[in-house]
Amino acid sequence: MKATATAPANIAFIKYWGRLNHDLFLPLTTTNSMNLSACTATTTIEFGAKTDSIVISDSEGNAKEIKNVAGEKDGMLFKTLDRIRERSGIKGGATVTSELSFPMGAGIASSAAGMAAFVAAGYAAAGNKKVTEDLEELSREIRLSGSVSAARSSHDGFTEHLFGMSNEDAYTVQIASEDHWDLVDLVAVLSPEEKKISSSLGHRLADSSPFMQARIEYLKDKPDLARKAILDKDFESLATLSEIDTINMHAVMMTSNPPAFYFAPASIDIIKAVTDWRESDGIPVFYTFDAGPNPHVITTSKSAPEVLKRLQAHPEVQFVLENIPAPGVRITDNE
Ligand code: DP6
User: Which of 25, 157, 161, 284 has its CA 20 to 30 A from that of 226?
Assistant: First the structure.
């Protein structure tokens, strides 16, 4: 009745923003990403306590007890424990501890790593092999816990969560393993600010942007093109697709009602710098952003030391997390 799982966060190339169905967390598009080696969560869950308790700690020794707040991501953790118990036919409160490999206030989308490890550890602790031994089913369960980005972390390396009209049809598949391509994602951490509009709320607001329909039109062939660029190791195509996609998504965010502004002034500054490094200095490099101010600056292993040096020299960059493509979720202990 006790298990531990480790899972990585990931960075999307074709992003998920807005949902077809908010109860089933069905994304409006197929979305693909690369798992991140330096941004992981390790979660242990044991059933058998009187009540549920969840404590998250980070690389700097900060610890936070999660409260059961309905509707938000925190509340979803408690709902997910109920779902795990119900689907696995077990009883008993869960004692959950989760450790992040990076600072929790750093504005990095930690939910992908956290939710993936949480769901895997929960089903393993509940002894539910129907879920833990079927990665597609595990990805559905991770999505149902409230996070499509986390569902992409179910498989190793480069993955995609498929668009589907039902729970059955929406699941994650692998595009390529972590050894396929030596990309590096340098996350330049700018600001430890909490997001004013959470992703959960943002997905609900997406439809209020007049540009969301245009985004859906534009997205039609993009997941296929990004998958092909990954399979062909075509850096230039992936760079163009990713940069256009992230700006397109942020245009939807900024034109929703109310608008969601995630960029900081330094985010724009780094967009311009990265474009210049590529166009004037010939460095293979591109940027992409989640729902936050921190640029993910993607390059090759050969150019990573130079790009790292340049990012570290930026006055607004507090620190840089260096990631290579990583395995997906792993159950590391199961008693
Ligand atoms: C902008 O609700 O899956 O990162 O943002 O980590 O809470 P969190 O997860 P989720 O939304 C992801 C939104 C995104 C784009 C993406 O990763 O596809």
Answer: 25
